[in-house]
Design goal:
By secondary structure, the chain is of the alpha/beta class.
C-alpha cells in the first residue's frame, strides 16, 4: 500500500485526547494524536497477521507508524500457555514518531495467557478487550490464575470490554457450512474488524488481501471477510463501545513523496536489488535459513526478473562459500545470517579478506549466546563482527538505524564492498528486521552510481618489458586490487587463503611481505571514505548520548522528551562502526559526559574507551526487547544531573 503525504513536526512522544464531536446518528468520535495498540493471543490465533493487516490499512490511511512484532521461539508451544503467547504492537500517529511506544493504550487479549503475559505493560486507565469465551477454569489454571481476573477486581483500574469473540464469530459464520473449529479460526478477523471500526481504519485493503490470500479456497475467504465485517458491525451496534476514535493522517510529518509501509528485512532486500542494478551486476544470495534473517532469502527469491539468483544451501558454511565463489565470478555476492551463523562463516569471511573480494555479510542479530533467544532482539554481535576471525582480518561494519534505513544501509554496504574490494558486515537486528514504518520510495536518480570496472588486460610491466597482470597491484587511492573475471584472456591468476606476495599474488612465506600485507589490508579499511558524524546539539549541551543501530528510535524519543522538559542534551548516532567517522574523537572530547545505550553489555563503549580514551558511560539492556523511551529518558536525566 502506498500513500501520498507531505516537514517533520517534532512532538513529545505522548498521547493527547483532543476535541470530541458527535455526527448526527452515530456514536461519539474522539480525536487523538496517537494510539498504541497491542494484539496478543496464542501463537495459533493469528496475531501477527491481524497486526500486519491493521498496520497496512494504517499506512494506506497516511499515519506515521512503528511496529513491534513479538512472537515465541517455539514453532508451536502448548496452546494457552505463557511461552506460547504471540503479540503485535502498533504505534500510529498524526505526527512524526520513532518507536512502537512504551505502553499500549489498548490491549486485545485473546486468552488468559495473553492477558497475564502483557498486563504489566498496560497503564491504568487503558482499554482492555478480552475474549471471554477463553476464560474457562482450565485455561485460567494453566497460567496460574486462582480466580478469574475478569471477576476478582484486579482489572478495576482499566476500561474492560468483555467480548465473547469466539461465540460471536461462530454465530456470524453459521451459514457457511464450516465446522466450529474452522469457524473459530476467524476470530482474529472479528477482532480486526472491531478495532478497525474503533479507529476508523479503511477496510477495502483487508478484504482484497483476504480474497487474494485464500484465492484457492473462496469459501474460506468469504468466511474471513464475513467475520471481519461482523466485528466492524459489532463495534457499530454494541452499547459496550460508546465511542470510536480518529487519528488524522500525518500530513506534515514527512517530505512530499510516495510512501509505503516497509519492514527492515524487506528494505534490506530492496536495497540489495537496487545496489545490483546500480552496479550493473547480477545479485547472488547464498544463504541458510535462520531466524530472524530468513525473510530476506524468501523475498529475494521472488525477484528473478531483476537478475537475482538465490541459493538455499545445506548449511551456513556452504552458503557463504557459494557467495564467495559468486563474488569471484563477478556478482554482487551476499550471504545472510544471524549470530550463530556468523560464527560458522568466520573462516570464509577471513578468506574473503585475504582474497580481497567484495562480499556482503548481513547479520540480523538476535539474543545469544549459542541458540539464545531466536525471536528476540539484541546488539551483541558488534565485537564478533570486529574481531571474530583468526589473524588480522579487518572488515568494514555498517549498521542501519530504522527499518526504512535498512534500504540505504544495504546500498552503502555495497558501495564499500565494491569500491574497496572487501567483505562488509551489515549489522541489523530482530527489532529492525520485523518492525516496520513508512518509507519514501526513492527516485532512481537519487541512488548512487555503483558501476564497477573489471580488469581488462595487463596492468604491470616487468623489467624486461613484458606486460603482465598482477592481481594484487592496488589502486593508489582506495588500495583496492583489480577485480578480474575468470576466463578473461591473459588475466589468469591464483587466489587462495595462503598469504600472497604483494603485487604478483604468488604464495609467499616471507616475514616482511606478510607484515606489509597485513598492514596494507588494515590501511585499506582505515582509509574507507565515510561521512563525518553529525551531532544534534541545538543548545550547547554538556552531555552527549551516542548510539548505533536500532537504538536510534528510543534514544531520539528520549532526547525529545528531555528537551521538551527544558533539559539540554546532545545526540549523535553511528552508521559506520569500522572505520569510525574521522571526527568522532573530536566530537567525544567536546562533552563532559558521554552516555552510550546498547542492547548488550557495553560493546561500543568498550571500543570507544579503548580507541579515544574517553570515559564513556554504558547504559545496557539485554532482555530481548528494545529500550523504552521513558526508561532511557530517566537514565539520561540522571547522567545530565550527574
Amino acid at each position: 500500500m502506498t500513500s501520498q503525504v507531505s516537514s517533520p513536526a517534532e512532538q513529545a512522544d505522548g498521547a493527547v485526547v483532543g476535541e470530541q464531536r458527535k455526527p448526527a446518528g452515530v456514536k461519539d468520535v474522539h480525536r487523538l494524536d496517537r494510539v498504541i495498540i497491542r494484539f496478543a493471543g496464542d501463537s495459533g490465533d493469528g496475531m501477527q497477521l491481524t497486526g500486519d493487516r491493521f498496520t497496512s490499512e494504517t499506512a494506506s490511511f497516511g499515519n506515521d507508524l512503528s511496529t513491534l512484532p513479538n512472537f515465541p521461539a517455539e514453532i508451536r508451544a502448548p496452546a494457552g500457555t505463557l511461552p506460547g503467547v504471540s503479540s503485535f504492537q502498533l504505534h500510529f500517529a498524526d505526527h512524526d514518531i520513532l518507536t512502537p511506544g512504551d505502553a499500549p493504550n489498548v490491549l486485545v487479549a485473546m486468552n488468559p495467557a495473553a492477558l497475564k503475559a502483557n498486563i504489566a505493560d498496560v497503564p491504568r486507565g487503558a482499554e482492555i478487550i478480552v475474549n471471554t469465551d477463553e476464560f474457562t477454569k482450565r485455561a485460567l489454571q494453566k497460567v496460574g490464575y486462582a480466580a478469574s481476573p475478569l471477576d476478582d477486581g484486579s482489572l478495576d483500574g482499566y476500561s474492560l470490554h468483555r467480548v465473547p469473540l469466539t461465540t460471536l464469530t461462530v454465530e456470524a459464520l453459521k451459514d457457511f457450512g464450516l465446522t466450529r473449529k474452522e469457524a473459530e479460526r476467524s476470530k482474529n478477523m472479528f477482532a480486526l474488524g472491531l478495532l478497525s471500526w474503533m479507529y476508523h481504519r479503511p477496510t477495502e485493503g483487508t478484504e482484497k488481501f483476504l480474497k487474494s490470500k485464500f484465492a484457492k479456497k473462496p469459501e474460506i475467504a468469504a468466511a474471513n471477510i464475513a467475520a471481519f465485517r461482523a466485528g466492524w458491525n459489532f463495534g457499530e451496534t454494541t452499547e459496550d463501545f460508546a465511542v470510536s476514535y480518529e487519528v488524522a493522517p500525518a500530513t506534515t510529518a514527512f517530505p512530499t513523496g510516495t510512501y509505503r509501509n516497509i519492514s527492515g528485512n524487506l528494505a534490506l532486500s530492496y536495497g540489495l536489488v537496487a545496489a545490483s542494478r546500480q552496479a550493473d551486476l547480477p545479485l547472488f544470495l547464498g544463504s541458510y535459513p535462520i531466524t530472524p534473517a530468513s525473510d530476506i532469502l524468501h523475498e529475494l527469491s521472488r525477484h528473478k526478473n531483476f537478475g537475482v539468483r538465490t541459493f538455499q544451501a545445506e548449511d551456513e558454511i556452504a552458503g557463504i562459500g557459494a557467495a564467495l565463489g559468486a563474488a569471484f565470478g563477478g556478482s554482487l555476492a551476499v550471504t545472510t545470517t544471524s549470530g550463530p551463523g556468523v560464527a560458522l562463516k568466520s573462516e570464509t569471511i577471513g578468506l574473503a579478506v585475504s582474497m580481497e573480494l567484495p562480499l556482503l555479510v548481513l547479520d540480523i542479530q538476535r539474543g545469544g549466546p549459542s541458540t539464545g533467544l531466536p525471536t528476540k532482539t539484541e546488539q551483541a554481535d558488534l565485537l564478533q563482527a570486529m574481531f571474530g576471525r583468526n589473524g588480522e582480518a579487518p572488515v568494514p561494519i555498517v549498521a542501519p538505524c530504522t527499518p526504512a534505513d535498512c534500504f540505504d544501509a544495504a546500498i552503502e554496504a555495497a558501495r564499500i564492498a565494491l569500491t574497496y574490494r572487501t567483505p562488509v558486515m551489515l549489522l541489523s537486528d530482530g527489532y529492525l528486521a520485523n518492525g516496520s514504518e513508512p518509507w519514501r520510495v526513492p527516485d532512481i536518480d537519487e541512488l548512487p552510481d555503483l558501476t564497477v570496472q573489471f580488469a581488462q588486460g595487463p596492468n604491470h610491466t616487468l623489467e624486461d618489458g613484458t606486460e603482465v597482470f598482477w592481481p594484487y597491484k592496488r589502486d593508489p587511492q582506495t588500495l583496492a586490487r583489480p577485480w578480474a573475471i575468470p576466463g578473461t584472456p591473459g588475466l589468469e591468476h591464483r587466489l587462495g587463503g595462503i598469504e600472497k606476495q604483494d603485487g604478483t599474488g604468488n604464495i609467499s612465506y616471507d616475514p616482511a611481505n606478510h607484515d606489509f600485507m597485513v598492514r596494507t589490508r588494515q590501511a585499506k579499511i582505515d582509509g574507507i571514505d565515510v561521512p563525518d558524524l553529525e551531532v544534534d546539539d541545538p543548545h550547547g549541551a554538556r552531555t552527549l548520548v551516542l548510539g548505533w543501530g536500532s537504538t536510534f528510535g528510543p534514544i531520539t524519543a528520549a532526547v525529545r522528551r528531555l528537551r521538551a522538559s527544558g533539559e539540554s542534551i546532545a545526540q549523535a548516532h553511528l552508521r559506520h562502526l569500522n572505520p569510525f567517522p574521522r571526527n568522532l574523537g573530536a566530537v567525544l572530547k567536546r562533552y563532559d559526559r558521554v552516555v552510550i545505550p546498547e542492547m548488550n553489555l557495553g560493546q561500543l563503549a568498550t571500543l570507544v574507551r579503548a580507541k579515544y580514551l574517553v570515559d564513556a558511560h554504558s547504559y545496557n539492556q539485554v532482555n530481548g526487547m528494545p529500550f523504552k523511551a521513558e526508561q532511557l529518558a530517566t537514565a539520561l536525566k540522571e547522567a545530565i544531573d550527574g
